[in-house]
Amino acid sequence: MKYVTEFRDSDLARRLIERIHEAARKPVRLMEFCGGHTVTIFRYGIRKVLPPGIEMVSGPGCPVCVTANADLDRAIALARLPKVILTTFGDMFKVPGSCGSLQEAHAQGADVRMVYSPLDALRIARENPDRMVIFLGIGFETTAPTVAASILEAEKSGLENYFVQSMHKVCPPALKALADSGEVRLNGLICPGHVSAITGSQAWVPFARDYGLSCVVSGFEPLDVLQTVLMLVRQVEEGRSEVEIAYRRGVTFEGNAHARRILDEVFEPCDADWRGFGVIPGSGLKPGKRFERFDAAEVFDVDAGPVVEPVGCQCGAVLRGVVSPAECPLFRTVCTPETPVGPCMVSSEGSCSTWYQYGGGLEV
């Protein structure tokens, strides 16, 4: 059997692959929640070195991809307001909403600026006291604490022209919605490493306990993913549904208590609209009562117009693991990275973008 060799430690990779083949005796379907894991799996051809009985399914773990069109439309409407500077991460620029994108709004005169962190947005607000600076808060539990910290800093420094449009989402409610739907049968979850660094592996205990899913938190190197798959296969073969950590250099059971305290101080749970899922109760974060003056959703009243979904786009079904990108009729024809129809083709961690770039992984 010819195995992939483009690993940092090819001997260890070979041993892990051999152990997976030895351990896997019955069909197993695993879902990687995080888009970062999807990239690793495809970039290094991991699917192609696994036994035929192990099926890998990509999940909704790309925060740009799961942002609903209604939220994108509101962001574009905010950008078009006079005296507003809209700041955002680069992945959001090209994501198409109902009628255009932030990139197109920028080309038409809106002041949309790419930043690398909320601290950049705070600096822009300080440098432009006569303008209103809005930061688009996109991300899961990983990035939300930094946005919460920026709000605390704005309060501390008396900054009155800094606002956050929070589109933050938290992962467990989405996984629960996925499990409750019954659309995709799963045996195990490759749990997100960076999210778990904040939440702790404790966040996944209900999925092992209540849904009988084997759960392993993974890092992002190919060896991490192979080790995670081996641990999951062993759990399934032994009839166990537990939460284990294959990323102990970054994750503990308890997680980052300081980051969670900041989140709890600034944000409160709210319902959130997920592309492909609809509104999931308690799956979003918005500034709490004390910080409402920084909440762009409370401060700015805009009419984003009717929501229009792209005809034929299967992003929602891809995010739920119901279909693969290759099963979408627009994939590689109408929808490409140069002319994306849906966000899954825009984000660097989107499933469609990953399938397009790596074509199913390295040949072995």
Furnish the topology, listing elements before pairings.
Blueprint: H1 10-23, E1 28-34, H2 35-43, H3 46-49, E2 54-61, H4 69-79, E3 84-88, H5 102-107, E4 111-114, H6 118-127, E5 132-137, H7 144-156, E6 162-166, H8 171-181, E7 188-191, H9 193-199, H10 205-211, E8 214-217, H11 222-237, E9 243-245, H12 257-266, E10 267-274, E11 278-287, H13 296-299, H14 315-319, H15 351-358
Parallel strand pairs: 1-2, 1-7, 3-4, 3-5, 5-6, 7-8, 8-9
Antiparallel strand pairs: 10-11
Helix pairs in contact: 1-11, 2-15, 7-12
Spatial strand arrangement across the major sheet:
2-1-7-8-9
Uncertain runs: 1-6
- Main beta sheet: 5 strands, parallel
Helix content: 25-40%
What's the alpha carbon Rg, rounded to whole Å? Answer: 21 Å
Helix/strand-derived class?
A: alpha/beta
Determine the N-to-C terminus distance.
Answer: 9 Å
What is the averaged pLDDT score?
94
Q: In sequence order, what are the helices and strands, one letter per element?
A: HEHHEHEHEHEHEHEHHEHEHEEHHH
What is the name of the CATH topology of the largest domain? Rossmann fold
Overall geometry comes to globular
3D architecture notes:
The strands form three sheets. The chain has a five-stranded parallel beta sheet with strand order 2-1-7-8-9. Strands 4-3-5-6 form a four-stranded parallel beta sheet, with helices on both faces. Strands 10-11 form a two-stranded antiparallel ribbon. The N and C termini lie close together (9 Å). The chain folds into three domains: 10-63 and 171-245, Rossmann fold; 69-170 and 255-296, Rossmann fold (3-Layer(aba) Sandwich); 315-358, no CATH class. The radius of gyration is 21 Å and the shape is globular. Residues 1-6 have low confidence and may be disordered. The chain has helices at 10-23, 35-43, 46-49, 69-79, 102-107, 118-127, 144-156, 171-181, 193-199, 205-211, 222-237, 257-266, 296-299, 315-319, 351-358; strands spanning 28-34, 54-61, 84-88, 111-114, 132-137, 162-166, 188-191, 214-217, 243-245, 267-274, 278-287. It has 364 residues and is an alpha/beta fold. Helix 7 links the parallel strand 5 (132-137) and strand 6 (162-166). The longest helix is centred in the middle third of the chain and has 16 residues, at 222-237. It contains 15 helices and eleven strands. It is 37% helix and 18% strand.
